[in-house]
Amino acid sequence: MRRAAVALLALVAGCSEAPAPVAGSAPSRATLELGRKVYNYRCYFCHGYSGDAKTLAATYLAPAPRSFVDATPDALPRDAIERALREGRPGTAMKSFAGVVDERELVAVAAFVFDEFVTRKAPNTAYHTAENGWPDHARFRDAFAFATGEIALDTPWERLTPAQTAGKQLFLSSCVSCHDRARVTDAGPAWSARPLSYPRAGFVFDPAAPADAVSGASVYAKHDIAPRIANLTARQKRGERLYQENCAFCHAADGTGMNWIGRFMEPPARDLTRFDAQTMPRPRLVATIRDGLAGTSMPAWRDVLAPDEIEAIADYVGRAFVGRSAGDAGATASGR
Question: Three-class SS of residue 333?
Fold first, then answer.
C-alpha cells in the first residue's frame, strides 16, 4: 500500500514540470496527463473515475457531487471549473483546493476535467495502470460488467453464468471497495451502514499470491471496527448505536478518525481519543455535536438529532474515547 501511494505521488511530482496552459489556449498533453494523475488521486472519490459522480460519496452528500459528463462545454467552461477549485462551492461539500494543490496542478485538473469529461465524455481508463498498482488489470475482466453497471449487482446468482458468478464474487470481494454498489435494481434504504475504509491510492498486489488473486487490504480498515466496551449504561448503549450510525462515517468506529473518510477530509476528522476531560469537557463535547465546528466538515447535528440523542452520544464518546489513547482504543477493539 505504501509503495503504491509513493509511486503515485512520484508520478504526480514527476509530471509537475508540465507548463501551465495559457488562458484560452489548448492545454498540452503533458498538462492533461498531470491533471489526470491529480484527479485520480484527489477528485475521483466524489466525482468518480469517469466524472459521472456515481460514487459512494454521492450516496451520502446533499447536494450530490457534480457529474461532469452531464455538463456541456457552454454550461461548464474551463474557467468555471478552475474557479470552483480555487474558491469551492458554497452550500456543497466542494471546498477550495487552493493551498492543497499548487497552481500548476489546479489549472491542469481543470483542463483535464473539461477535456476528458465535459467535452469528450471519455471514460478516464488510465487509472487502472501498473504505475497505480494495477498490473495486468485485464485479468479481472469478469468483474468489469458489474463495475460498469452492465449487469446489476443484485442480479440473482442463479441467473448468472459461471463466468458472471466468478465476476460478481470478485467484484464483491475487491472491486466494491472503490466502485461501491455500482448499479442495482433495488437501491435499498437511503441510509444504511456500509464499509468505509478503502485503499486511497490503489491496491498493492502480493508477488507471492496466486496470479488471479487481488488484495482488498486497507490500512484504514482496522479503524472501522467498533471497540467492545463492557458495562455500558442504557444511555451509553443508545449513544453507541447513534454514534456508529451517524458519527463513525467520519470519526471511525474506534473514534480515531483514522478511517479512509476521516483522513481524506481537509482538515482531517478529529481523533476523539486524543482528548481528555480537561481538553474536551462534556459541555464542550455536547456543544460541538449540537452546533458543529466552523471551518471544518463537522456539521451541526441539532436539526438531525434530538437533544437527548446528542446527550447519549456525548455519554458514549466520553466513556469510549475521551481519555483513551489510540493505542488503548485499538486494544479494546473486537470484530462483531
Answer: strand
